[in-house]
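tool=predict chain=A
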Amino acid sequence: MEALKLKTVADLITSPEERVELIDGEIVRRPMARIDHGTAQTHTAIELGALTRRGGPGGWWIATEVSVAYEAHQCPSHDLAGWRKERLPERPSGIMELPPDWVCEIVSPGHERKDTLTLLLLLQHHRVPFYWLLWPEDRTLVAYALEAGQYRICATISEPTRVRVPPFDEIELDLGYILGE
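tool=predict ok
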C-alpha cells in the first residue's frame, strides 16, 4: 500500500481544477456558492470599503477569495481577508504568504466543519487576530478574537442591527444589509 503524498502549494498552483484550495495537504473543491453566500460576501466587502480608502478610517487591505499559503500543505482560499497597512504597507498581489489580521468565512451548508474547526485551528495556530463566521441561513455573525493564543468569542449577533465588531470598531456595520435583509 502506497503512503498518501501530501499536496503542496506548487501542486495547487498547477491544478487544472477551478475553485479549489489546499487543506491539510489535499486539494479540495470549494463549495458551490449560493445567493445568500454571495450576498453576504459582497455586502461585507461594501460595508468595510471605507477602511480601504484614503482619507477614511482606513488602514486595511481587504480582499475576497484570496489564497493564503500558511504552510507547505495549507493554502485555503478565504471568502474575505484583511491585512493592516501598517503590517503590509504596499498593495499585495498573488498568493499571500503573510497571515492576515482578519478572516471572514461565510459558512456553507454541508461545509461547516472546515470553517468552524479546520480553519479556526489553522488561523489560531498562525495567530490571526480576528476570525469571523457569517451564517447567512441563520442570519448570524460570530466573531472571534485571539487572546493568549486561543480564540474566544467576542460577539455573537443574530439581529439585523447596526454593530461595531472588532477589529472594525471604528465603523458601524449594518448586519441586516450584510445578511441580505
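The CA atoms of residues 96 and 177 lie 29 Å apart. The chain has a mean pLDDT of 91.
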